[in-house]
Amino acid sequence: MATSKTVKTVRLDPVLVDKVAAYCATTGLKEASALRQLIEKGLTTEGLSLYATPLGQFVRDLMQGQLDLFREELEERNDDLENRLVKITAKGAKNSILSALLLTDLSLGLIPAWKDKLPDEIWQAYSRQAGEYQSGKSFRDVKAGGGGGA
What we know:
This protein is an all-alpha fold.
């Protein structure tokens, strides 16, 4: 005995079209099959929430608890990684600043044009250039803008 099929028209917004296309690409299904599968899964999920049995509610609560614990663990790991990154970056920045200070002092003695310059002026010029470079200006534009204490 053959079962009859009903043809329905469904309107999808562009976001859903993209999601369905991504689902088709990952499962290898044709669009019609993918839509049927997604509708079946959605109805099953809705059925669990609307007509939950005590056992279904227990399983859902258990799964939610596991997901909450997993989320907390991921957040802790993320915080640890961020702290590590800050320590590594800060150490490099501290070493860079110390190197720049030492080079400024050394350059004052070696470069005749800087003989009458104050170290603060040189440092401010380099700090300004570093800020411009970090804000997105190209290295060439920053250097063309002058500074460097010379």
